[in-house]
Amino acid sequence: MATLRRYSAAEQTANHLRSELKRGVWMGVMPGISRLAKELVADRKTVEAALKQLEHEGLLVGQGPGRQRRIVLNAKKSARAMRVAILLYEPEDRGARYMIELHHALMEAGHTTIFHNQFLAELNHDLTRIERVVKQTEADAWVVMCGSQQVLEWFSKQQVPAFALFGRREGLTIAASAPDKAPAMVAAASHLVAMGHRRIVLLARKERRLPQPGRVERIFLDELKAHGIATSDYNLPDWEETKEGFQKLLDSLFRVTPPTAMIIDETHFFVAAQQFLAARGIRVPQQVSLICTDTDPAFSWCMQPISHIQWDAVPLVHQIAQWAESVSRGHRDVKQTFVPAEFIAGGTTGAAAEGKK
To answer: CB–CB of 11/314 below 8 Å?
Structure first.
């Protein structure tokens, strides 16, 4: 089901004021908050948030407390149409709802999106190959999806601006946005422990595990330790990221000391794990509990609700569009943001089976 874009009151107000500014309704300085609030029938906080948004976009300049903002619409650098190249992680990402919305948002802003025909997983995060791809692509800016720390560090040092969508950008000077899954991961792990689970496994991609576990993965392991569970490679196993490698991992996990709960990164791995368990007659949640770290429209059609981590992709699209606007005007924008995420308990988690805790 398509996700509708819902604008906050402040965003709606900013959109209206932006349009009025471009029509030349006000010149020199912006009316004060009280006057605007009265004219727009809006509260002062909403108007203030909208004006701050226009400041961030470079349309207004604050002149101190109690003074009206100066209009710099005609003084600022004009925006230029850009070619924004998008380096997806894998082919399936092209069809993601937020990627379609991003394409439309950039197109509406006058930019051209270039979906590169090579993918980060296919390039194996190899910097030599990635450098070749970047040099061969005529682009004014890049959006890099799910980049490893090494890849994003390389992009952060290039002259061409880059935006990290998801990925390992901790400590790097690069614009970025991602869901903040840390609190949701704590809630998910605590939920499982409260139901008696001790053998809990997190299945994550290679770049989330290496060269050392990422922030969310470390928080997962720390949460287990906080509940008195000794952790090892068993809880965050290494595996070859292929269809065969995933099956081999699941075979090894359920051969000797099967987990009673698995938290699985991304929906396609979750579906593959469900198929593996069904083929072996392992019941969910009676014998093993499952949690997916993402949501999917298909989940709403499941009679047994899927336990998952939920987050809204709309702010991510909005952040990238703002970044592109800023870059198109010649500004250096390395702002990093998080989108709130929430653990949703469903029918795929239950009490640990007796004797298997």
So the answer is: no
Cα separation, 7 vs 326, in Å, equals 20
**How many whole angstroms separate alpha carbon 65 and alpha carbon 62?**
8
Same fold, 83-179+312-340 and 182-311: yes
The yes/no answer on whether domain 83-179+312-340 falls in CATH 3.90.1150.10 is no
Q: Is CATH 3.40.50.720 the right assignment for the domain spanning 182-311?
A: no
Query: Whole-angstrom Cα distance, residue 264 to residue 284?
Result: 14
**Reported pTM:** 0.76
Look up the CATH number of domain 9-71. 1.10.10.10
CA-CA distance, 207 to 223, in Å (whole number)?
21
Pick the range with the lowest mean pLDDT from 60-64, 70-74, 144-148, 240-244.
Answer: 70-74
Task: Give the containing element (helix H, strand E) for 70.
Answer: strand 70-71
CA distance 176 to 323: 9
